[in-house]
Amino acid sequence: MEDGLIIDDNRNTADALHQMLELLELPARVAYGSSPAMTVLGHMVPRFVCLDINMPGVDGTEVLAYIRRDPRLRKVPVIVVTADDQPETRHLVMKAGAQAMLIKPATIDALEEALNKAGIVTP
User: What is the pLDDT of residue 2?
Assistant: First the structure.
């Protein structure tokens, strides 16, 4: 099974998520921004995606839309990880096909709960 994929332009946030996933024994690759993520998604079907919304250029909602349009990726669980705690944002990302939404800074407990909600079983 493929690794997960973390997509975030903030290296500190992406690296912190990566470390938490390692503690949960869930391997993941990191793409620092939407452009590198699109390259990775072109040749990888990740087990899950942790996706930032507010990124320069192509934002996370556009990446999520791409994932849901691509037949290879359509069923990949997506967990949105964002600092935007507005009800409108939560409604938008859930309607667009995310399985869960975490507010930054995410804790390992909140991440594990979101993974479970998305159907990703932690070992």
Answer: 81
Domain 26-107 CATH (choose: 3.40.50.620, 3.40.50.2300, 3.60.15.10, 3.40.980.20): 3.40.50.2300
Instruction: Report the alpha-carbon distance of residue 14 to residue 29 in Å, rounded.
Output: 10
- Which pLDDT score, from 0 to 100, does residue 1 have? 54
* The pairing of beta strand 78-82 with beta strand 49-51: parallel
Cα–Cα dist 48/34, whole Å: 16
**How far is Cα 22 from Cα 33, in angstroms, rounded to an integer?**
20
**Please, is 62 exposed, middle or buried when counting C-beta atoms within 10 Å of its C-beta (0-12, 13-18, 19+)?**
middle
Query: d(Cα 27, Cα 90) in Å, to the nearest integer?
Result: 26
User: Hey, what amino acid is at 5?
Assistant: L
CA distance 120 to 105: 21
- pTM passes above 0.90: yes
Residue whose C-alpha is closest to residue 112's, from 11, 23, 9, 14: 23
